[in-house]
Amino acid sequence: xxxxxxxxxxxxxxxxxxxxxxxxxxxxxxxxxxxxxxxxxxxxxxxxxxxxxxxxxxxxxxxxxxxxxxxxxxxxxxxxxxxxxxxxxxxxxxxxxxxxxxxxxxxxxxxxxxxxxxxxxxxxxxxxxxxxxxxxxxxxxxxxxxxxxxxxxxxxxxxxxxxxxxxxxxxxxxxxxxxxxxxxxxxxxxxxxxxxxxxxxxxxxxxxxxxxxxxxxxxxxxxxxxxxxxxxxxxxxxxxxxxxxxxxxxxxxxxxxxxxxxxxxxx
Length: 267
Prior knowledge:
The chain is mostly beta strands. It has one domain: Porin, CATH 2.40.160.40. Helices cover 3% and strands 56% of the residues. It has a twelve-stranded antiparallel β-barrel. The radius of gyration is 19 Å and the shape is globular. 31% of the residues are buried.
């Protein structure tokens, strides 16, 4: 449904493209004050698309066998707001691991979970790419979540604005969404969706848009230690046919006052 709505726009200049370092859908609620989280998400383009003109010219890395990895530190500032910093690295096929960009974000909830039929949250991010026409990009996501029995739905429409750039670009639209089922405390299967449509003033043609579906398994390995794994399949010509993704996170709290003992993992 999302793909059908987005690919029908008139032709336009292709967008910057989906941020593959941020293949993550967020709920409208946060984890809580004082919670620390260390996370790594790594993806590998197992089957890349045909190289674009920019990739063929060496202006961008070729997508086939491109490895991307993100290191994240997240902290619960209040019961409804958390902040995070990211370090993004990449390794084109056969080359060395290199710095790609840094990101900083804040995320929060407007209300307590379950107070209204829909949980509403927000997400703001500043992205500082190492290369490219843009030196600073801002992203905003209104977040909508809903629990229906054991099922949960999270919607993350994304609005991205290049603020320091050598190109004339306006607000761009991407999206993330997921549906998952709480099978047990330790295993949660789901399906995630990601895509980009281009600049809002004129969406890209269908052949230039990227849309993906990720069958996903979330799980808990031990106290405070969680994982997410699953393949992603491209749905359009501009998409990579197959991407493999693995994420691992560790959550913990510190003793009151910041001392007096080791970190305590959360459940």
